[in-house]
Specification:
Shape: globular
Structural class: alpha/beta
Strand order of the largest sheet: 2-1-3-4-5
Number of helices: 10
Largest sheet: 5 strands, mixed
């Protein structure tokens, strides 16, 4: 178990405990924008934090308020991983937890499309609502795991203490993990029933905040690379076409190959002959890096080009034509 003095950098925000003697501290104070996400990213920019800071041990000193989740979500997005936190007089070593959340079994995929769910808060209303244990008893029933894992959008009503709120948040994000942890909306539980999949009235979209923070980190990296003034290497028309094909959304390629999906993340494999059941259950997972993998057919994740080569038995050039020239799709399908 780490002590506060074991960390190299402590990140504070409004209402955080005092800085630790002998440990460098940085303040992430939200800006004045009325939009919480924009204000938090402005505070992140003003803090002076860099990606290099997260190569060492970093801890977040959380204020005693469930809203401590907002700066914490931004820090995780900027760091590209979970960050340890200090709350309720305890060091919470989230960076050491299993990243997958697969240890919690669920009750199976819901029979229909589950657009919204809620974890925590009062039961009732239009949303299926589930609960997890707080404190040391982080208990998740299979029924609760199903709602948390498969709901396209999830809002979370946190426990009142910062320590329990952080622990519940990290658990929920891990259960929803695809390529990365997927963050829920931070909710009061009093929002109106959602109308659409991207209803902005459901609280603070912590997943959007995570992505904006990750985007800012990429901006810093791009700026640092640009300072080197390395002359660009000319790209041949052939390689440019291959690169263009690789950048096409792999979901679009799966659709052209005859695949389909219930939720946009888990797809039917376009190679049903390799499956004993004809792939009646979706077996292909789509990841955030525009790659996919069928756990029955692929030893590792594959991109659009490699997927088409394997399914159609064509060359890389033919695969690029299949992806980029929609009028040639039918002609290139195997008989």
């Amino acid at each position: 178990m780490h002590q506060l003095t074991d960390y190299v950098l402590a990140v504070r925000t409004t209402g955080s405990p005092p800085a630790i003697e002998g440990v460098k501290s940085v303040d992430l104070v939200p800006g004045d924008d009325q939009d919480v996400i924009a204000a938090t990213i402005a505070g992140l920019r003003a803090s002076g934090l860099t990606a290099a800071d997260f190569r060492s041990r970093v801890i977040y000193l959380a204020p005693e308020d469930p809203n401590c989740l907002v700066p914490y979500a931004a820090l995780c997005g900027f760091a590209g991983r979970r960050v340890d936190a200090y709350a309720g007089g305890t060091v919470l070593e989230f960076s050491r937890l299993d990243p997958q959340g697969e240890a919690f079994p669920d009750a199976g995929r819901p029979p229909g499309y589950l657009e919204w769910g809620q974890v925590g808060g009062e039961d009732g209303g239009a949303l299926p609502t589930v609960h997890v244990g707080s404190g040391a008893q982080q208990l998740v029933t299979p029924e609760a795991a199903t709602v948390i894992r498969y709901a396209a959008r999830l809002r979370m009503v946190p426990p009142p203490s910062a320590r329990d709120a952080l622990a519940t948040f990290v658990l929920v994000a891990a259960l929803r993990r695809r390529a990365d942890d997927r963050f829920p909306y931070l909710s009061t539980g009093n929002e109106p029933a959602p109308v659409t999949k991207d209803d902005p009235t459901q609280g603070i979209d912590l997943e959007k905040l995570r992505r904006e923070a990750a985007k800012y980190r990429q901006e810093l990296r791009a700026g640092r690379r640009g300072a080197d003034m390395v002359p660009p290497v000319p790209v041949s028309p052939h390689n440019k076409r291959i690169a263009e094909a690789k950048s096409v959304d792999v979901r679009t390629v799966l659709t052209r190959l005859g695949s389909s999906s219930d939720d946009g993340n888990l797809w039917h494999c376009p190679r049903p002959s390799r499956h004993s059941n004809g792939d009646q259950n979706p077996s292909m997972k789509v990841y955030g890096d525009n790659r996919t993998r069928c756990h029955r057919c692929d030893a590792e994740k594959v991109g659009p080009i490699r997927l088409v080569i394997d399914v159609l038995g064509v060359t890389p050039d033919e695969a690029a034509s299949f992806i980029l020239d929609s009028d040639r799709v039918v002609d290139m399908r195997p008989a």
